[in-house]
Amino acid sequence: MLNQLRPALSRVITPVGRALARTGLTPNAITIIGTFGVVGGALGFYPRGEFFWGTVVITIFVFFDMFDGAVARVTGKTSRFGAFLDSNMDRVSDAAIFSGVILRFARQDHPDMMIVGLALFCLVSGALVSYARARAEGIGVGATVGIAERGERLIVSLVAIGLDGLGVPYVLVVGLWLLALASAITVVQRFVAVRKQLEVSEQP
Ligand SMILES: CCCCCCCC/C=C\CCCCCCCC(=O)OC[C@H](COP(=O)(O)O[C@@H]1[C@H](O)[C@H](OP(=O)(O)O)[C@@H](O)[C@H](O)[C@H]1O)OC(=O)CCCCCCC/C=C\CCCCCCCC
Ligand SMILES: Nc1ccn([C@@H]2O[C@H](COP(=O)(O)O)[C@@H](O)[C@H]2O)c(=O)n1
Ligand SMILES: [Mg+2]
Ligand SMILES: [Mg+2]
C-alpha cells in the first residue's frame, strides 16, 4: 500500500539523494551504513529497555533504505548487486528490530513470554512475506501485494515500540498482535496472487 506513495515521495527523496551523492558516498555504502545504524539502534538500545531512543535511532537510519536507491538512480549507479544487497540488508534490519525486543523480554528480570512469542512470530512471518516475493520473482511471477509490506510493517512496529518507550500502556502488545495478523494475511495474499498468475500462465 505504502509503495503507492513512492512517486509522491520521490519528489522529496530525490533532492536528498542528489545532496547525498555530492558527498561521494556510493549507494552500497549508504545501504551498509543504514543497516549498521538500524542494527546498532535495535541491539544497542532495545535489550536495555530503551525503546524510545532505540526507535529514534532506527527511524533515522531506516530512511537510508530510501536514499540508497535514490542515490543509485541520480548517479546512474543502479546495479543488480545493489538491489541484491539492499534486499538482504532489509532482512538483517528487520530481524534486528524484533531480536532487540525479544532480548529485552526474554531476560529473567523482565520476562514476558507473550511479547517474546509475538515478536518471534512477527520476525518469522515478516521474513516469509519477503521470501514469498523473492521466490515468486525467481519463478517469473510477481507478488508485490499485501496489506503489510515492509513499509507498513516498519511503521506499525516502530510506532508500537516507540510509544511503549514513552510509557503508553498496552501499545506494544496490541501493535504486535496487529502486525502478526497483518503479516500472516500478507503471506496468504502473496500465495494467492502467485497461484492465480500460475493458473493463468500454465493453462493448456
Ligand atoms: C512518538 C515516539 C514514537 C516514535 C515513533 C517513530 C515512528 C516511526 C515511524 C515511521 C518510521 C518508519 C518509516 C518507514 C520508512 C520506510 C523506509 C523503507 O523501508 O524504504 C524502503 C521501502 C522498501 O524498498 P525496497 O523496494 O528497497 O525494499 C523491498 C522491500 O523490503 C520488500 O519487502 P516486502 O514487502 O516484500 O517484505 C522486499 O521483498 C524486497 O526484497 C526489498 O527490496 O520502501 C517502501 O516501503 C516504500 C514506501 C515507504 C513509505 C514510508 C513513508 C513513511 C513516512 C512517514 C511516516 C511517518 C509516520 C510518523 C508516525 C509517527 C507516529 C508517532
Ligand atoms: N545499494 C543499492 C541500493 C539500491 N539500488 C537500486 O535501487 C532499488 C531500490 O530502491 P529503493 O529506493 O527502494 O531503495 C534497487 O532495486 C536497485 O535498483 C542500487 O542499485 N544499489
Ligand atoms: Mg533501498
Ligand atoms: Mg531496502
List keywords for this structure.
204 residues; mainly alpha; Four Helix Bundle (Hemerythrin (Met), subunit A); binds ligand LH5YIG7M; binds ligand L45E5XJ5; binds magnesium ion
List the helices and strands and how they pair.
Layout: H1 6-22, H2 27-45, H3 51-62, H4 64-75, H5 80-105, H6 113-138, H7 150-165, H8 171-201
Helix pairs in contact: 1-4, 2-3, 2-4, 2-5, 3-7, 4-5, 5-6, 6-8, 7-8
Question: What can you see in these coordinates?
Answer:
This protein is mostly helical. It has one domain: Up-down Bundle (Four Helix Bundle (Hemerythrin (Met), subunit A)). It is 78% helix and 0% strand. The protein contains 8 helices and no strands. The chain has helices at 6-22, 27-45, 51-62, 64-75, 80-105, 113-138, 150-165, 171-201. The mean pLDDT is 96. Bound molecules: ligand LH5YIG7M, ligand L45E5XJ5 and magnesium ion (2 copies). The site of one magnesium ion has 4 residues, from helix 4.
- What is the CATH top level name? Mainly Alpha
Instruction: Provide the succession of SSEs.
Output: HHHHHHHH
Number of helices: 8
Small ligands present: ligand LH5YIG7M, the ligand Nc1ccn([C@@H]2O[C@H](COP(=O)(O)O)[C@@H](O)[C@H]2O)c(=O)n1, magnesium ion
- The percent range for helix content is over 70%
**Counted beta strands:** 0
Give the N-to-C terminal Cα separation: 34 Å
Give me the secondary-structure category: mainly alpha
Query: Which percent range describes the beta-strand content?
Result: under 5%
CATH topology assignment: Four Helix Bundle (Hemerythrin (Met), subunit A)
Number of domains: 1
Q: Low-confidence segments, ≥5 residues, pLDDT <50?
A: none
CATH architecture: Up-down Bundle
Query: Quick one: overall form?
Result: globular
Average pLDDT works out at 96
Radius of gyration: 18 Å
Instruction: Give the biggest beta sheet.
Output: none
CATH superfamily grouping? CDP-alcohol phosphotransferase transmembrane (TM) domain
